[in-house]
Amino acid sequence: METKNYRKLGIDYGEARVGLAITDALGITAQGLETIHHNNNDKIILKRLEEILKEYDIDTFVVGLPINMNGTKSERVEKTEKFIHKLKCKFPGVKIAKIDERLTTVAAHRTMNDLNVNKRKKKNIVDTISAVYILEIFINK
Q1: Domain tally, the chain
Q2: Three-state SS for 80?
């Protein structure tokens, strides 16, 4: 009997955009999936996640928590925790892992600068790259 390989979905939850990354079927690598523009409407995100779950076998959401550099919880953490609660209600069968995402956005910007990504494109992919970093932190734990 073959065992099913489940993927992990990395989520960089932001006010206007959400970056998504996904592991390969073996859970070894992370690649950017997409950025969802949601204008503060979580329903748009949840609907898209529902579609992604139909397409891929995902057993874990890996959500980045934007903790302040000094270790305190930011206002964004509270909003992210509320979003995580919505995830738990809508997708009760999917595990949720929280990852300290400090510096992932800084690392994403550094990567884009190294690759000479133009300014207009940066805004659209920074969240996806951040989600890749969040997922990589989880994979490497």
Answers
A1: 1
A2: helix
Gap between the Cα atoms of 78 and 70, Å rounded: 16
Q: What CATH number has the domain bearing residue 54?
A: 3.30.420.140
Does residue 31 form part of some domain? yes
Cβ atoms 27, 38 nearer than 8 A:
no
What are the tokens at 31? 């690649």
Does this model's pTM top 0.85? My answer is yes
- Domain assignment present for 95: yes
1 is a domain residue: no
Residues 100 and 83 sit within 8 Å (Cβ to Cβ): no
pLDDT tens for 48-81 read 999 999 999 999 999 999 888 888 888 889 999 9
- Please check the confidence at residue 2 and state whether its pLDDT lies above 70: no
